[in-house]
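Q: Structure for this?
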Amino acid sequence: MHFSDDELREALRRKDPGEAFTQKVTARVAQQQAGGVTRSSAGTRFRGFWHLLGLRPVLVGTIVAVLAVGGSLGMMKYRQAQEARAGEAAKRQALLALHITNAKLNHVFERAKNPQSE
Amino acid sequence: MKTMARSKELFAAFLGVLLCCLAAPTQAQNARLKLEHLEKLGSKAAEVNNVTLDGDMLQLAVKFLDMDKDDPEAAQVKDIIKKLKGIYVKNFEFDEPNQYSTADVEEIRAQLAAPGWSKIIENRDKRNAKNNEIYVMKDASNNIAGIAILVAEPKELTVVNIVGPVDLDKLSALSGKFGIPGEKKDKDREQHKKKASAENSDEEG
């Protein structure tokens, strides 16, 4: 196939794309910009959390202190309950032991006084 | 020369005091009987009461008895146990007679034959196979450092071993309800015995 110089010049000449093309390009650019803004706002929020911790040491300290005090109180209550259980058991054992001792002591004394008893 | 003799006397006195201090707790320790060999009877017994209270547990019991300020019985019990070093009770009640052996009892008697122990009461009823004995251990100051009560009857074997200064009169005079289930059972048993003896006398009459 052979093209003449005039044919080539006509084919490569500048042409106006038209109003519709310009509108399409403008719309697509706007759409891409909107998507970029969304991604950037999530990152800002994540950075903001650390920023908050960094800037509010009092708040962080208070949270840690509340957790520590709560934990210690819980542990103290648990130990007290355990000691109370052990103490009640020891008391019951002591009462039982003395009850048996008292009964057997009096039984032996009674038999010593009156061998014919029972 | 005089100074030398004086220092020797002082050293001897110091040694004497030291030995006394060491001997007192040793004697109190010796008042504890070995009762582990009785554990096997638990499986044969219809009822078992096993108490082992020493050291921290005894102090804990005193602390908790101290909380019952309004209870005169708790005060009585606390008064008795506050100076004790240990309370050990093994009580077995059987449905059938002869569930424990003579060897079980002899093993306890052998320990009570050791120096320091002296038998203060003994009731032996061969006809009914009932042997009840009370032993005390005294320290150098002639104070009671421990007691042992041995009740060996056909359907019952009880050994009570208390280590530490005990007042037998106070122990015997304890007369509270103690708030423990055994009390009711004892009363029921006594009533049952009275009823049985009344029935027997009616039959005889």
